[in-house]
Amino acid sequence: MSVTQRVQQWATFARTWHIFDCTWQNPFEAASLIRKHLMGLHKPIYHPMNDCGDHVVVINTAEIALPGDEWKKRAYFHHTGYAGGASWTLAWQLHEKDPTMIMKKAIYRAMKGNLQRRHTMQRLHLFKDDEVPKEMLENVTNQIRQPRRVPERLDHIDPDMVRDFPKLMDYPKDYILR
């Protein structure tokens, strides 16, 4: 085996580290992207019984965006295992308690049918903000692209650019905003 073939084989079988930013992302759309990397679906050697997935570091889970009125209507089920231990928690309440839990549950659900999903979830590293331990950041070699573009806030845009932006109309001097 030549040196280049050996390096190619090592790269194929190695577990790489990916990073994903959840800012303004729908957790259910993002979960399918993250699932591919956790399970190794993006690799040519993938097989359902082969554990060839990668590590994924997910940051800013506190800034996810659920569509519509999902914050008020979506409920999550939990059971303690004891009699009468069933409970339903609304998404906004669950997000207040643990900002990483909605993303974790979305990814776990996206891996339905994976016989090793509990083992696969151990390679998922969730953080509510962008403070990741230095040891993990040293391992990261790839970034998973966000499905939604994050809009730029108006207060972060240069004031000169806002002033020079073309206007549809100018309000009269005596116009009163209510």
TrEMBL record:
<dbReference type="InterPro" id="IPR005822">
    <property type="entry name" value="Ribosomal_uL13"/>
</dbReference>
<dbReference type="GO" id="GO:0006412">
    <property type="term" value="P:translation"/>
</dbReference>
<dbReference type="GO" id="GO:0017148">
    <property type="term" value="P:negative regulation of translation"/>
</dbReference>
<dbReference type="GO" id="GO:0003729">
    <property type="term" value="F:mRNA binding"/>
</dbReference>
<dbReference type="InterPro" id="IPR036899">
    <property type="entry name" value="Ribosomal_uL13_sf"/>
</dbReference>
<keyword id="KW-0689">Ribosomal protein</keyword>
<dbReference type="Pfam" id="PF00572">
    <property type="entry name" value="Ribosomal_L13"/>
</dbReference>
<dbReference type="InterPro" id="IPR005823">
    <property type="entry name" value="Ribosomal_uL13_bac-type"/>
</dbReference>
<protein>
    <recommendedName>
        <fullName>39S ribosomal protein L13, mitochondrial</fullName>
    </recommendedName>
</protein>
<keyword id="KW-0687">Ribonucleoprotein</keyword>
<dbReference type="GO" id="GO:0003735">
    <property type="term" value="F:structural constituent of ribosome"/>
</dbReference>
<comment type="similarity">
    <text>Belongs to the universal ribosomal protein uL13 family.</text>
</comment>
<dbReference type="GO" id="GO:0005762">
    <property type="term" value="C:mitochondrial large ribosomal subunit"/>
</dbReference>
